[in-house]
Amino acid sequence: MGLLNFRRKEAPASAPLAAFLRGASIEVMPRTAEKVDDFAAILPRGTRVYIAHIAGTPIEDMVAMAARLRAEGMEPMPHFPARIIRGKDILADWVARYRGEADVRQGLILAGGVEAPAGDFKDSMQLLESGAFEGFERLHVAGHPEGNRDIDPDGGTATLSDALRWKQAFSERTDAKMAIATQFAFEPVPLIEWAQSIKAAGIDLPIHIGAAGPAKLQTLIKFAIACGVGPSLRVLQRRAADVTKLVLPFEPTEMLSALAEHKAADPGFGIEAVHIFPLGGIKASADWLARHRKDEE
């Protein structure tokens, strides 16, 4: 059975999935957000919206995007990628602008997807240690359920595990709420096993699991390869073998339904929320969320 499905007809939202999607977040970039006239028209008030900071994006554009989201009733959470921030003064300037111009209270703290640091910071731990985020209500850090060869080139998880243990310890000495926001994947069972494994290792930071929003198969494969998605890429590769399905949109319904049912059976399960990567467009992802989260209408 495939773990993603394409929609042939409207199906009723399941109660576990609807509950699991409460508080779901979504990600945007300034250039893709230009296609949305009003976020309040497509997302519930208070939705957490991550703002991806791609290298080369002017901070002015990022801050303006955060201010727009705040004005339209959303909760902006900009990315702070360590390796593209040139120094402590730049970091302090970014934080001051976000706080002063957009009332930003939350941030995703990550290393960033560039190979060489532009300045003083090489990883998210150095950003957290800087003290720049004192007063933030919520700080999220990155998680990689399928590993990350940029961090652990041998395909293992030793460096990733050490980093999560450090972040767990940091969370215990800060007032900010912390959580792990993960890369997207396409299979539920490995995600369940990963969540259970880090909990067994003493890491109890809540997990916000990444899922790719509705998109064409070709689009998903392109982004999955570019983002270093691991073994669960095989789900898309199996689907690609059927050329009749190449133009049909895939949705994360089956994967997230499986996780939702696991959460309903085990309320203490570490995955507490869903984060949507709108690879097929913000509107398509917002429509999917609204369809499966009917109890919030």
TrEMBL record:
Q: Which UniProt keywords apply?
A: Oxidoreductase
The opening ranks of the lineage are: Bacteria, Pseudomonadati, Pseudomonadota, Alphaproteobacteria, Rhodobacterales
- The identity of this protein, by name, is 5,10-methylenetetrahydrofolate reductase
Domain of life of the native organism: Bacteria
- GO molecular function terms noted in the UniProt entry: oxidoreductase activity
UniProt cross-references to InterPro entries, sorted A to Z: FAD-linked_oxidoreductase-like
**Source organism of the structure:** Jannaschia aquimarina
